[in-house]
Amino acid sequence: MQKHKELHNKCPLTHAHFNHWNEVFRQTVDELFVGEKAEEIKDRAKNISDVIMYKTIQ
To answer: Which of 26, 31, 51, 58: CA 20 to 30 A from 40?
Structure first.
């Protein structure tokens, strides 16, 4: 969390930044993996991103 807050203080993060990261992550997983675990990691990454975004951007 702290690193994201430090980055946000230097260059404010936006919802667009998090959305872009999530899209790149999902595309990468889709290119390299298939199956239940691939779907699980994409969901988990989105949930983690949502928490970081909420705690950073408020």
So the answer is: 58
> What are the helix and strand counts (H, E) for the chain?
3, 0
Structure tokens at 18: 């998090």
Q: Which long-range contacts (CB under 8 A, 24 or more apart) does 7-16 make?
A: 8/56, 8/57, 13/53, 13/56, 13/57, 14/57, 15/53, 15/57
Confidence at residue 58, expressed as pLDDT on a 0 to 100 scale: 75
CA–CA dist 43, 41 (Å, integer): 5
Q: Count CB atoms within 10 A of the CB of residue 19.
A: 12
